[in-house]
Amino acid sequence: MKQAGVASFVLGLIFLVPTMATAAEEHQIPVAPQEYLDMENPIDEDDVDDIFLKKVRRTYKSKCGKCHGMKGDGEGSAAEDIEIKPTVFNAPGYLEEQSDGQLFWITLVGSETTEMEGFGPDSDAGLSEEKIWELVSYIRAKFTR
């Protein structure tokens, strides 16, 4: 009887562990409501120059870099301890597939079931919508391949 119980436990682990790993790997980033997907970034691309990037880099470093990494590679100093790994902004094609409104919305409200918290005006971070748009412009300028 004890052998059957141990065998059942071991078989359970064999099937449970891969399922847990797959759940983390298969995380889908929530899609923004249509009103956000339709938004256009109010920051003109021509205004995203070296001075702009240097200014916004400070905000990115303090709010985003710990998880997403300063290279946009998802390997920030806190990323190792996160179960569902941060988005890799510099993955080939990733940013081309995301609208500015999608990036804005995720930054504003966060991503449920992950450690990505919202950074909007009503959050602990308290970033204004203008600051969030600046981050979207920074991310796109620095990490689009």
Description:
Helix 3 packs across helix 6 and helix 5 crosses helix 6. The termini are far apart. The chain is globular, with a radius of gyration of 19 Å. The chain has six helices and no strands. By secondary structure, the protein is mostly helical.
Quote the average pLDDT.
Answer: 85
How much strand?
Answer: under 5%
- Label the structural class: mainly alpha
Number of helices in the DSSP assignment: 6
* N→C terminal distance: 59 Å
**Biggest sheet, in brief?**
none
Order of helices and strands: HHHHHH
Helix content: 40-55%
Q: What is Rg?
A: 19 Å
In total, how many beta strands? 0
The general outline is globular
Could you list the spans in which at least 5 consecutive residues all have pLDDT below 50? 6-24
Compact description:
With 145 residues, the protein is an all-alpha fold. It has helices spanning 2-25, 34-37, 50-63, 65-68, 100-109, 129-143. Mean pLDDT is 85; it is low at 6-24.
